[in-house]
Specification:
two-stranded antiparallel sheet; 8 helices; mainly alpha; 6% strand; 2 domains; globular
Length: 199
């Protein structure tokens, strides 16, 4: 599952690169005849999309064939913001939640939980996240947070309240990431799906 996820990440980067190159080619098509080049790039993009789809199907097969993975996958995807790919990333990074048992430690690993600059008993400066964080996982959690802010009533209300109080948006999104991590570990521990409540 991890190997397929690495392959998918590489293909997604190729897809983004192809999209940017295609967009650039379209913008300059008025200066020269680039129909052949655009056709080539469109075919290349289509092929990459097909490969991504194939990889995702293979990952689904692996999950479906393992009851422990499937159970946790279904629990994770019951949380607003955690889609199929985010769930797979979490399963891979946590070793199906055997590598980490505490949401706080996992948040630290992902660079989500803030640390304070301190010396002795005094606190200096603003809080910051660990430099040893797994930045790739943090990217996926950021996407999950943004989705949750749009679709989860409680998270949306929390985001509006905190930003309304003058909190920096990045700080609030970080807090939302932490909330999502806590929810993930909670559903795995309880073995029951997450129930979205109204704000």
């Amino acid at each position: 599952l991890r190997n397929w996820m690495v392959i998918r990440d590489n293909l997604v980067k190729q897809k983004v690169s192809s999209l940017k190159l295609l967009e650039l080619t379209r913008e300059t098509s008025g200066l020269a005849d680039l129909v052949t080049a655009m056709t080539f790039l469109e075919k290349q993009l289509s092929l990459v999309k097909e490969k991504i789809s194939y990889v995702e199907q293979e990952m689904e097969k692996i999950i479906s064939s393992n009851i422990a993975l499937l159970t946790n996958y279904q629990l994770l995807t019951s949380i607003k913001g955690i889609g199929p790919i985010n769930a797979i990333v979490l399963l891979c990074v946590t070793g199906n939640f055997h590598r980490f048992s505490d949401p706080r430690k996992f948040a630290c690993y992902c660079g989500v939980a803030p640390f304070e600059h301190s010396s002795g008993t005094s606190i200096r400066g603003k809080t910051k996240t660990s430099n040893l964080a797994n930045r790739e996982v943090k990217v996926y959690l950021t996407r999950a947070a943004i989705t949750a802010i749009s679709w989860d009533p409680q998270i949306k209300a929390y985001y509006k309240r905190k930003t309304g109080e003058g909190k920096h948006k990045a700080s609030v999104i970080n807090a939302v990431r932490a909330k999502i991590i806590a929810r993930c570990f909670a559903v795995i521990k309880r073995k029951t799906p997450f129930v979205t409540l109204r704000a």
